[in-house]
């Protein structure tokens, strides 16, 4: 009996210890200033990245070596995280989350000053860089994006030509007609959903802004109904639904395979996928590996025009930021500045530069020729949208609701498209009200 | 004769007496040592248990009363609000229907495991080989199994090819509809966990003394009688344990559906839903409450089961 008491006490004590859950880390408002003299900055900095591929093949090391030519005393280490978002989220409960990291989507914008050191004021940085408003809190900027991108369809030009289509479709109806032509005249799968990977379906959310060429599209998500008649997300979701319903997709979406889809698109077994500019370089690499012509990989905007012109939304990729607890903030800042402006990362990835005066990459030349308008969607209300999204559990940045949409379209789920949208609208409206906007 | 043996006995007794320490008058130090020694041995496992099991559970219970989002340094005490939300949102409980598939699968699994264990406990040719074959899947990592079976169920994948060889050309999308997908996933789970149940049963069966079979054979009992009157009652405790494990496993199915479908097409289980709440929608508080509720449900089910089937001592002889 006595022993049992001791054991019970020990367990009870152990249970009590974590009761006082850590709420440390109140350091707030530190700045990471750019060093004045590159030769004097020193220290070892750890850079967290999602690009595990570049860490493994040594490309990151090459960047670091190049960086050391200017900053000889800084030692840069890389850590690639496959499951970046969830791993970093857990690590950010401590002070030890690298010196330079990519701002995970989970961090609330208002919490940025607690986690990251400021890179300067927006007034000063926005003169040189695009996308500064995405990480601005109270006039100070906390992150610097590595590159910009634009969503769009990656397609196989050869297949589309075989199907007799040489012009980009300008309406969703034309787009469906084009896919039907691909199905009728070629052996290719007209559209590949990549249903199983999930995140590939999420990119349909980034249609937001392109349908009406609206720079205030995000405000409308925060204040209105994203699935109202004619709203951007409804137009996009309807197109996806109709594509699946018309049987213009792979036979069994539930077992689709993302890695396989790259060479298959390059070879012309798959005609089209909705992704983004970031994907082009991967598909071209897959084409080279498969021994087919990488120039067959084409890229086109969402089929919608305003005043006879297509619209492409340019938005930032992950933002690099300096850990507010970092002991080498100057070195970390130096890395971010160098990586953004001088590393050539943007060129290597055929991406859009975050620098305002930089030219567009070659892959975007067809866009220029077609007179596509590039817009940036204002992100002032982005945090609010994310909040409503989490509250409502709709998950416009998560795959589930579009997987449900695809299931609905192929008859694996009961209901009509209208009631599906009505349910989303209802949940969104309720969350918007409870979020008190 | 008796005299000498008695003497010898006394001699040895007196000779041995000073060497063996009598329990009563041991010095204080030794007594303390003796009390402490078992605890010293227990320190490592207890520390691990407390640090990696009880402390996180306590933390989880604590979070379930807050609105924590999983990363923000700020969290607010919200009382039982999360629990109210869970019990007032019927959509959160609808996922338990999916557990029905896994429950049905566990029944099949237990029967199959029992059958194989019984057959292989008798002298069968290649029995060790078959034991290995049956147990092998349990040794493979669940994530790997998920990926392997994605290829297996693919359109034109392994399953379709095998059926094609047998002359049955199917065009069925195995993960295509909720019913088909859940059945397929439950099938994978049978394949994976059959080995564990099998080994548990086999161990229990082999601990039954061999004379019983011999005696039964002399009495003219056939294999079925041996199973019915010797094996079945002999392994009852293990059977009860397996049923409890299966029920709790079905309620908390996670790995296989999460890897293979991610919860799409109506395959979402309660744990997948909880993970999504915590990591997708950053409602760590609510998700912790959901986890606590699941724990309570499983405890309740186990308790009811123990009530219905009390664990009495088995005595075969």
From TrEMBL, chain A:
Q: Which InterPro entries does the entry link to?
A: Bact_solute-bd_prot1, SBP
Q: Which residues form the signal peptide?
A: 1-23
Q: PANTHER family from the xrefs?
A: ARABINOSE-BINDING PROTEIN-RELATED (PTHR43649), POLYGALACTURONAN_RHAMNOGALACTURONAN-BINDING PROTEIN YTCQ (PTHR43649:SF33)
Supply the source organism for this entry.
Streptomyces resistomycificus
**Top-level taxonomic group:** Bacteria
Does the UniProt entry include the keyword Zinc?
no
Q: Which UniProt keywords apply?
A: Cell membrane, Lipoprotein, Membrane, Palmitate, Signal
Q: What is this protein called?
A: Sugar ABC transporter substrate-binding protein
Automatic annotation (TrEMBL), chain B:
Q: Which residues form the signal peptide?
A: none
Report the main location listed first in the record.
Answer: membrane
Q: What is the similarity comment for this entry?
A: Belongs to the binding-protein-dependent transport system permease family.
Q: Where are the transmembrane segments?
A: 39-65, 101-122, 134-153, 229-251, 285-304
Which GO terms of type biological process are on file?
A: transmembrane transport
**Where does it reside?**
Cell membrane
Keyword Membrane assigned to the entry: answer is yes
Q: What is this protein called?
A: ABC transporter permease
- One Pfam family of this protein, by short name? BPD_transp_1
Membrane topology qualifier: Multi-pass membrane protein
Which keywords appear in this protein's UniProt record, sorted alphabetically?
Cell membrane, Membrane, Transmembrane, Transmembrane helix, Transport
Q: Which CDD domains match?
A: TM_PBP2 (cd06261)
């Amino acid at each position: 009996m006595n022993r049992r008491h001791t054991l019970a006490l020990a367990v009870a004590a152990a249970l009590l210890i974590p009761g006082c859950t850590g709420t440390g880390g109140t350091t707030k408002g530190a700045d990471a200033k750019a060093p004045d003299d590159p030769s004097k900055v020193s220290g070892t900095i750890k850079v967290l990245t999602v690009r595990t591929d570049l860490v493994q093949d040594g490309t990151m090391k090459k960047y670091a070596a190049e960086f050391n030519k200017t900053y000889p005393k800084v030692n840069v280490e890389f850590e690639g995280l496959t499951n970046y978002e969830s791993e970093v989220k857990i690590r950010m409960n401590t002070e030890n989350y690298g010196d330079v990291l990519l701002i995970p989507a989970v961090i609330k914008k208002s919490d940025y000053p607690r986690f990251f050191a400021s890179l300067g004021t927006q007034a000063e940085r926005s003169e040189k860089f695009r996308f500064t408003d995405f990480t601005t809190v109270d006039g100070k900027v906390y992150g610097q994006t590595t590159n910009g991108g634009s969503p769009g369809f990656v397609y196989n030009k050869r297949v589309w030509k075989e199907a007799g289509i040489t012009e980009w479709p300008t309406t969703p109806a034309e787009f469906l007609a084009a896919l039907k032509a691909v199905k009728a005249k070629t052996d290719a799968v007209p559209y590949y959903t990549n249903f199983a990977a999930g995140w590939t379906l999420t990119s349909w959310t980034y249609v937001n802004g392109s349908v009406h060429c609206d720079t205030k599209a995000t405000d409308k998500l925060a204040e209105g109904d994203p699935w109202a008649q004619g709203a951007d997300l409804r137009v996009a979701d309807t197109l996806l639904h109709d594509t699946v319903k018309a049987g213009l997709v792979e036979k069994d979406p539930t077992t689709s395979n993302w890695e396989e889809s790259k060479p298959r698109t390059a070879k012309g077994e798959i005609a089209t996928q909705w992704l983004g500019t970031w994907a082009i370089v991967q598909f071209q690499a897959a084409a080279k590996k498969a021994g087919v012509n990488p120039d067959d990989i084409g890229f086109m905007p969402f089929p919608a025009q305003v005043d006879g012109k297509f619209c492409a939304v340019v938005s930032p990729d992950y933002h690099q930021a300096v850990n507010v607890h970092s002991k080498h903030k100057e070195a970390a800042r130096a890395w971010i500045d160098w990586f953004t402006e001088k590393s050539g990362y943007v060129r290597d990835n055929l991406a859009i530069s975050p620098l305002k005066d930089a030219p567009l990459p070659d892959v975007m030349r067809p866009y220029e020729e077609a007179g596509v308008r590039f817009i940036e969607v204002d992100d002032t209300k982005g945090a609010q949208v994310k909040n409503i999204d989490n509250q409502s559990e709709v998950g416009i940045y998560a795959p589930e609701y579009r997987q449900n949409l695809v299931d609905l379209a192929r008859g694996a789920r009961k209901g009509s498209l209208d009631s599906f949208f009505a349910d989303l609208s209802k949940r969104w409206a309720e969350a918007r009200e409870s979020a008190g906007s | 004769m008796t005299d000498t043996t008695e003497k010898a006995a006394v001699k040895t007794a007196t000779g041995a007496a000073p060497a063996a320490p009598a329990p009563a008058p041991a010095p204080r130090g030794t007594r303390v040592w003796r009390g402490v020694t078992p605890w010293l041995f227990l320190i490592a496992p207890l520390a691990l248990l407390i640090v990696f099991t009880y402390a996180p559970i306590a933390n989880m219970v604590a979070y379930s009363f807050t609105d924590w989002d999983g990363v923000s340094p700020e969290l607010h005490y919200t009382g039982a609000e999360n629990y109210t939300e869970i019990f007032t949102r019927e959509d959160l409980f609808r996922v338990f229907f999916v557990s029905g598939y896994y429950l049905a699968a566990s029944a099949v699994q237990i029967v199959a495991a029992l059958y194989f264990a019984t057959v292989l406990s008798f002298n069968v040719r290649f029995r060790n080989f078959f034991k290995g074959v049956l147990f092998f899947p349990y040794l493979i990592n669940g994530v790997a199994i998920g990926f392997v079976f994605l290829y297996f169920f693919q359109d034109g994948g392994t399953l379709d090819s095998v059926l094609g060889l047998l002359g049955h050309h199917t065009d069925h999308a195995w993960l295509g509809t909720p019913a088909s997908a859940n059945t397929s996933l439950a099938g994978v789970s049978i394949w994976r966990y059959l080995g564990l149940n099998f080994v548990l049963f086999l161990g229990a069966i082999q601990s039954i003394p061999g004379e019983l079979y011999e005696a039964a054979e002399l009495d003219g009992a056939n294999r079925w009688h041996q199973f019915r009157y010797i094996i079945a009652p002999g392994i009852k405790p293990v059977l009860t344990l397996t049923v409890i494990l299966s029920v709790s496993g079905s309620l908390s199915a996670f790995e296989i559906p999460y890897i293979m479908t991610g919860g799409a097409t109506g395959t979402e289980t309660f744990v997948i839903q909880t993970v999504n709440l915590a990591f997708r929608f950053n409602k760590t508080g609510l998700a912790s409450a959901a986890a606590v509720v699941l724990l309570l449900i499983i405890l309740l089910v186990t308790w009811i089961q123990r009530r219905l089937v009390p664990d009495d001592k088995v005595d075969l002889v």
